[in-house]
Amino acid sequence: SDLRQMLATKSVENIQFLPFLTTDVNNLSWLGYGCLKQDWTLITVNTIGAALQTLYILAYLYYSSSKRAVLLRSLLLLAVLAAGYGYFTLLIADTQTRLTRLGLFCSVFTVGMYLSPLADLAKIVRSKSTRCLSFPLTVTTFLASTSWTLYGLQLHDPYITVPNVPGIVTSVVRFWLFWWYPPGQDKPYRPLHA
Q: How high is the pLDDT of residue 74?
């Protein structure tokens, strides 16, 4: 829905960039974990997710009025990802150690991804408006984090299970914000002429 809004309005107003960026890096990290673990569920889901998030980032960059800031953030996180890739492939020879450290790296990024939509929490409370939050993204995040938590429990993989629990919690917080500050209440009203 955010992509549809960008295409319809030809603007990124009221659409957060950080969730797109962190989700893309998160998908790419988990893709590496899935390849190392040879888990085709992780590989398939994260390949599709990374491709979609990259499209969202390109659309955001295209419609953004502050292209430089968007590009700098993207390049910074890509540099972190490249450094991580270099570390995990060149410096760690033992596969089990690599899997453990990559799992921890992915876990930290997943927690960051789930916390990123709450970056504007103070602004939301101050303005009493959830306009900058995406309800469809909140629903999707809740469903995805719940699914991955259950999948991690099934595999007995704490690197999948543990970091997805904050996704459930932050989604519940965002649902509460939507309930507390309903989207319709922040619409500007035009004065009536007598």
A: 85
